[in-house]
Amino acid sequence: MSRVPDLAELERRATERGPAFGEGAHIVCDNLVRIYKSDGIEVVALQGLDLLVDPGELIAIVGASGSGKSTLLNILSGLDVPTAGVARVAGADLLTMASKERLKFRREQVGFIWQQTSRNLLPYLTAMQNVELPMRFAGRSRRERHIRAAELLGMLGVGDCAGRRPAELSGGQQQRIAIAVAIANEPHVVLADEPTGELDTVTAADVFGALRRVNQEFGTTTVVVTHDAQVAERVDRTVGIRDGRTSSEVRRRDEADGTRVSEEYAVLDRTGRVQLPRGFTQALDMKDRVRLALESDHVGVWPDRPEARRDQERRDQEESDE
Ligand SMILES: Nc1ncnc2c1ncn2[C@@H]1O[C@H](COP(=O)(O)OP(=O)(O)OP(=O)(O)O)[C@@H](O)[C@H]1O
């Protein structure tokens, strides 16, 4: 019989620190909750979301409308405050941060790109002035601002647009300049909410290419919320959000022979919960409860139906007869 731990043992276990969840990750969301209250009604936009993003990673976040993607991005950018849980970006704790620190965090640690091109740039400033502005807030010298803004515009292929105002630029050019604005203060993290949502397919691919270049060249951790399947296909990890929780992940890698392999994963949270993809449960008409079996190298999940059980027993029998 196993020994019942005494009080001293329980205290020792409680104070014993294992590696912290997400240690080394650049973005850590642990059981993140955001509840909105309006007119006495509560909307649970995030209900215990877990997410880890490594330094330098570029990931896409996908999910149905209303699943909580924008809420998550608003929290990570310091614009919104979570109700409970942990949200850490580049070491900054977004739950406990005071408003002064929050402002500094938003100006210096994160860059944000919105879907609406008009929301990213000030209409009365030129492209160059738009890129210089965040550096001005951060107290950089006029000369330094000018040199860096010119360099960034050049790198993003819009150097020739420096003197133009947003109304004189195409949607794609505006989004490239928005990327330059977002990275002007060398943030640790870039967050983009549907950055290609208003663009045609070719321009969208160009703008996403620019984001990817920034990620590769500066190692900026980048999170892109998108409905664009083409964008989601081009990242190594796509995280699916369903009902305010991370539900599934698709990981992609290039094999030595050049083929791109993609594999679907379900997220396993720390209590052992897994959300099966809706397509899987629908295909096998799984409802209410499933039958589980631990095998030597996997876990089997079956619909709770007598015929499914009989099929499995038949297969087991055939295997043992072989
Ligand atoms: N300020 C708010 N007040 C009340 N409810 C809100 C607020 N912001 C978002 N919500 C609700 O929270 C839930 C998640 O919204 P959110 O905008 O994060 O979803 P989304 O996945 O970004 O959707 P979309 O793809 O349509 O932009 C929705 O039910 C939404 O109505």
From TrEMBL:
<dbReference type="InterPro" id="IPR017911">
    <property type="entry name" value="MacB-like_ATP-bd"/>
</dbReference>
<dbReference type="InterPro" id="IPR015854">
    <property type="entry name" value="ABC_transpr_LolD-like"/>
</dbReference>
<feature type="domain" description="ABC transporter">
    <location>
        <begin position="27"/>
        <end position="268"/>
    </location>
</feature>
<keyword id="KW-0813">Transport</keyword>
<dbReference type="GO" id="GO:0022857">
    <property type="term" value="F:transmembrane transporter activity"/>
</dbReference>
<dbReference type="GO" id="GO:0005886">
    <property type="term" value="C:plasma membrane"/>
</dbReference>
<keyword id="KW-0547">Nucleotide-binding</keyword>
<dbReference type="GO" id="GO:0005524">
    <property type="term" value="F:ATP binding"/>
</dbReference>
<protein>
    <submittedName>
        <fullName>ABC transporter ATP-binding protein</fullName>
    </submittedName>
</protein>
<keyword id="KW-0067">ATP-binding</keyword>
<dbReference type="InterPro" id="IPR017871">
    <property type="entry name" value="ABC_transporter-like_CS"/>
</dbReference>
<dbReference type="GO" id="GO:0016887">
    <property type="term" value="F:ATP hydrolysis activity"/>
</dbReference>
<dbReference type="GO" id="GO:0098796">
    <property type="term" value="C:membrane protein complex"/>
</dbReference>
<dbReference type="InterPro" id="IPR003593">
    <property type="entry name" value="AAA+_ATPase"/>
</dbReference>
<dbReference type="InterPro" id="IPR027417">
    <property type="entry name" value="P-loop_NTPase"/>
</dbReference>
<dbReference type="InterPro" id="IPR003439">
    <property type="entry name" value="ABC_transporter-like_ATP-bd"/>
</dbReference>
<dbReference type="Pfam" id="PF00005">
    <property type="entry name" value="ABC_tran"/>
</dbReference>
<feature type="region of interest" description="Disordered">
    <location>
        <begin position="297"/>
        <end position="322"/>
    </location>
</feature>
